[in-house]
Amino acid sequence: MSHSSKLLRYVDIGINLSDPVFRGEYHGRQVHDSDMDDIIQRARDVGCEKFMVTGSDLEESRRVMELSRNYSGFCYGTVGVHPCQAKAFDEYPGGPSRMLEELKALALESKQCGHAVAFGEIGLDYDRLFLSAKEPQLKYFEAQLDLAVDIQLPLFLHSRAASEDFEQLIAPRLAKLPKRGLVHSFTGTLEEMQRMVDLGLDIGVNGCSLKTEENLEVAKAIPLDRIQIETDGPWCEIRPSHASSKHLAGAPPLPKAVKKEKWQKGLMVKGRNEPVSIVQVAHVIASVKEISVEEVCEAAWRNSIKMFGLGEEAS
């Protein structure tokens, strides 16, 4: 697929913009100046017109809402507690019910201001039970699903090695959520993808969703009216070792990247994925589907606006 000179429109529906690395801080150490504004400008330069910033716990969700206020009309966000943080409910001062109340208050207030557009990142992750055991994951996924239904926010979902329990919890609640939601950073099987689509969910695709030949077969099969695209930066970059990298021929080049210690203004940081690389995700999807990048972008844009709004009218 050759790259068109027409500027495309992108929504990055999964970007962890509150991560300290986007402010030049790595493992608690300030390595270089914050380059947040440059990161956002690079994304805008390639046509990325909207960010949906991910909240993974209560504190981070608050920071995400602050980003949404600071970059109003461009950044929107999610409110929720990631399954790997599920144990935080039981450790919260005042207990789980207090934390759920605070989550609900933040989500309601932020939805009314137009900043919170989804409830998430919530779900199940049985690959990382060392971070939070199965029981609190199940318990607080269910509790947060009920909050989302109460507040009427579409879902921003996480499912890893847990499809049976995930589907069992989610299926009865989706009828009460007209806009349903999206399973982000999808890496499941073809059969799992088809079951998610049958439930009425969209599928979020990033570099991690395109690592293997099997992943590419799944991406190829996702219906165009159910696909959304994301970077999941600072993670999930497309690497030369990934099956997807051979589909990048003709993709627009990314800005030069250097080691974080050598960073200078205008450069990317090696190993720190950022929203400008959404062009690569769209390019790979177009290549495996054998359609134009324009078709991928327009479909993904339509799907994201229809589900999350993001300050636009759905066409």
UniProtKB/TrEMBL annotation:
UniProt-listed InterPro entries: DNase_TatD-rel_CS, Metal_Hydrolase, TatD-like, TatD-type_Hydrolase
Pfam family, one: TatD_DNase
Coiled coil spans: none
Residues that, per the record, bind a divalent metal cation 1: E121, D232
Keywords on record: Hydrolase, Metal-binding, Nuclease
A GO term, aspect molecular function: metal ion binding
Domain of life: Eukaryota
PANTHER family documented for this protein: DEOXYRIBONUCLEASE TATDN1, TATD FAMILY DEOXYRIBONUCLEASE
Protein's name in the database: Mg-dependent DNase
